[in-house]
Design brief:
The chain is α+β, with helices and mostly antiparallel strands. The protein has helices at 38-48, 58-67, 104-117, 128-144, 149-162, 183-196, 208-219, 270-280, 287-295, 324-340, 345-362, 366-378, 386-394, 398-406; strands at residues 2-7, 10-15, 22-32, 72-80, 83-93, 121-122, 125-126, 198-204, 241-247, 253-260, 301-307, 312-319, 409-418. It contains 14 helices and 13 strands.
Length: 432
């Protein structure tokens, strides 16, 4: 494994992929999110995935990937704390397996770098027809949120929790802003991202020297002013707020509970946080699974997850309509039990084994390994392999688990339930 700085805000990381017969090149552009251009940022990856200047036709791009022994290209957007990450990745067989000795690394890099650095433009802006099509596609995605009641409940809770905070900017954009997205505004957002982003290229099994050479060629002359990563953020501690929404015909109510640390300081390590979530509600041996779901039969599902950079812990569950308060009380009781009551070494070790097993599985996937290392980059940590992550996980103590859970304060509860007398009578069934 080697990580090298090529220019201000530009890095290339080479990861071992000897055991695989495929290779992978990924480009991550981490940039500051803005509310005013959030919808442009959501449309951008959809448009970029359609083609680039060297291959602007979607059908021809698909054929080109097929000719490269079935290579896969993906363009996506994700969150890293309150920043955003625009990602392009391409995966295909290694050079040495090419039947006619083709330089596949060059082909893969040309496509990936072309997608991110040389988009298809008409008169200096994005193709109006492509923008129109992908705006309609995004509108359908945003409309579909309501049909997935679990996702809908979580997002409604987040909206109440974050309000106008930078952490609350919608990753998928806003339907009300879609009419304002134009080829010109999309190009302006693309230019902003390319100028401000920290660029990380991850290479697995391809020729890193060639990838580096091509990357520097693409960046030559680019006007860039990379920004520092956003600092961790936490919402302030407030009195718990409860919200409830009734939907006719719902067969399974949804409950989302959000907690804040109240301060971005003294953050626990990601290893300790993983262990704390596993003990509380992130595994089949957790308190929430064993006690709330299995013993009390209050939930169809019930789990916890936490984000270190935003200081939020989330518990979401599916319950029988009318049992939301009972489930909420049981969840709080389990959290209080871990904060103030005994935690057995046996339950911690059970959860630890699950985490160790998941780290063993990282070595079976190029994408999983890359995500492991890029996660460390986004957190500003030294890079270490999953094997050392297992060592750190084995060293987490009961007290560290307890202290992490004690740092969370209950902020928002959002419930989506059936209207009285309409349960299970059709109309708006929840879709998992």
């Amino acid at each position: 494994m080697e990580r090298k700085k090529l220019a201000p805000g530009v890095f290339i990381t080479t990861l071992d992929a000897e055991k695989f017969n495929r290779c992978r090149i990924t480009i991550h552009l981490r940039y500051p999110a803005l509310r005013r251009s959030a919808t442009d940022a959501a449309v951008l990856p959809l448009v970029l995935e359609r083609g680039y200047a060297g291959c602007p036709d979607m059908t021809e791009l698909s054929r080109k990937l097929a000719r490269l022994y079935g290579a896969d290209l993906g363009v996506d957007q994700s969150s890293a704390g309150i920043d955003r990450v625009l990602t392009v990745d391409i995966c295909g067989i290694k050079d040495r397996f090419a039947l006619d000795g083709e330089n596949l690394t060059r082909e893969y890099a040309d496509i990936a770098f072309g997608t991110i650095f040389e988009p298809y433009l008409i008169d200096g802006v994005f193709d109006p027809e492509a923008v129109r099509i992908e705006k309609e596609s995004l509108a359908r995605r945003l409309d579909a949120e309501f049909n997935n009641k679990r996702l809908y409940c979580v997002r409604q809770a987040r909206r109440k929790f974050y309000s106008d905070s930078p952490a609350g900017i919608e990753l998928g954009g806003y339907k009300s802003d879609l009419p304002n997205v134009t080829p010109q505004t999309l190009k302006a957002e693309y230019d902003r991202i390319l100028s401000l982003a920290s660029i990380d290229v991850m290479v697995q099994g391809a020729d890193p020297a060639l990838v580096e050479e091509l990357l520097l060629q693409k960046l030559a002359g680019a006007a860039r002013s990379p920004q520092r990563f956003a600092m961790p953020l936490a919402m302030p501690i407030i009195e718990t707020q409860h919200f409830s929404e009734e939907i006719p015909g719902l067969t399974q109510a949804k409950l989302c509970m959000l907690f804040t640390r109240g301060t971005p300081e003294d953050l626990p390590s990601i290893t300790v946080m993983r262990m704390a979530m596993s003990v509380f509600g992130g595994s089949t041996t957790s308190r929430l699974f064993r006690n709330v779901r299995e013993k009390q039969s209050l939930c169809y599902y019930c789990g916890s997850a936490a984000q270190r950079a935003t200081g939020v812990m989330m518990i979401d569950s599916g319950v029988e309509p009318g049992k939301e308060q009972q489930a909420e009380a049981a969840i709080i009781a389990e959290l209080e039990g871990l904060k103030n009551g005994p935690i057995t070494q046996e339950e911690v070790d059970d959860c630890r084994r699950g985490l160790l097993s998941s780290m063993d599985a990282l070595g079976d996937s190029l994408a999983a390994l890359e995500n492991w290392y890029y996660g460390q980059i986004t957190r500003g940590e030294p890079l270490y392999p999953p094997e050392y992550g297992k060592v750190l996980t084995g060293a987490v103590s009961l007290d560290e688990v307890r202290q992490t859970l004690q740092s969370y304060h209950y902020s928002v509860c959002y419930a989506v339930t059936a209207e009285p007398g309409t349960q299970g009578k059709g109309g708006s069934e929840d879709v998992e």
